[in-house]
Amino acid sequence: MKKISKLQVLRFVIQIGFLFFLPSLFTLTFGELKQLYSMIASGNFNFTAALPQLLEAIVVIPATILLGRFFCGWICAFGTFNDIIYLLSNRLFKTKFIVKEKVDSVLKYLKYVVLLFIIFLAWIKGISLDSYSPWNAFAQSTEFTETIFLYPVGFGILALIVVGTIFIERFFCRYLCPLGAIFSITSKLRLLRINKNREKCGKCRICTNNCSMGIKLYEVDVVNSGECINCMKCISSCPRSNTELKIVGKKVNPAFVSGAIILSFIAIYSLSTILVAKSNVALSTDTNLSKTENSISENNNSTSSTEGKKYKDGTYEGTGRGYRPNLKVSVTIKNDKITDVQILSNNETPRYTTIPFDTIPKEIIDSQSTDVDTISGATRTSNGIMEAVEDALSQAKTGGSGESSATKESGNQSTDESNNSGRYDGKEIYPGEEYNKNNAPNDNFGDNLSPRFDGNRRQRHR
Fold this sequence. Notes:
The chain is elongated and about 90 Å long. It has two domains: 6-247, no CATH class; 284-460, no CATH class. It is mainly α and 462 residues long. The relative contact order is 0.12. It contains 20 helices and ten strands. The strands form four sheets. Strands 1-2-3 form a three-stranded antiparallel β-sheet. Strands 4-5-6 form a three-stranded antiparallel β-sheet. Helix 4 (55-67) packs antiparallel against helix 16 (254-301). The chain crosses the membrane at residues 12-30, 57-88, 109-128, 148-168, 255-277.
């Protein structure tokens, strides 16, 4: 049995860790690149304002430019999925399918075609491709029986990828990954490179045969290819220790450097997430206090006349189901217009709420309608907000029990509720059952089953 190097054991442990704890990074990063494009194209890019919406991209892209595709080789959950499938197939079939070098070189251009296709249709034309995404299908694989009808094409493509991965290592990463296409360009300027002295290699091609991405390593002294994902298998497999990892020409220990890079990435990402969360909490508190004051003032100044109006003035609460139940909002109506939408409480995954919680309420107010675009990567959360707003508006149409929430509750109660907005104590109940957080479905990828709606929802890539 072939001995596995300690470096590859370290890599596999790190891959599994990211698969379980940060499996959504690849979808968030790619979605945020579209968001970045939209901001720049519209001339509305502000780094400070954009940071909460572009956190993953802001961390991952610079790291790839400086250090190469560590993200692909060590962090990406879909890459790990490819590795696991190929590892199992190797153990099962005990054979390796070899792709001819010329064929492999041509097929690698497919991912650029896929990237251009997505940019044109989804980014420029605004056409939703969510149901065609194998990433979305992969995210929903734990709920296959419920989601197969939402992503039939996506699951079909995912099945083809699995078949391809059985025979070809990193099949998707080599030939189809749009994020990999971007990284293969941005990593060209990396400071970290693999070097090898071909004079000592002779006719040996062990490093090439073990390369996850099928790079022709026997032809080069320095690996400059953008296809390199820094998996280090060429270093681990070389019987002569002829392959070396160098930073700006200086030899370094691959295990130490790889571990340091991953730890640095985790530290920077965690710190950024904490800072963004604190910023969002401060903003939410200020907004909710202002909303409460305005709600009380509007209620005191409102009249009881509703003749000729679609909605009664006041503040109404509504509940919808995002990925998880009990997504609660408040909707303020003044002069027959939606003037404010606030998220009161929710059980959603935090990193998937930043964009929809900021964007969907604004667009509902701007369009005076709940028929707005959902956020790709957070479809169910987006739909849950709209469902909750519709619930609140249904009360405004009929007047609920004849009173708005501002009239029905005292000022102190309203203020207390506002100050507690965004908190979840685990005790909320939605129709028909008690919510059990331990049994809640995994929401790591954000794009999930559509809530119960009568109308159609458009989806937009972010």
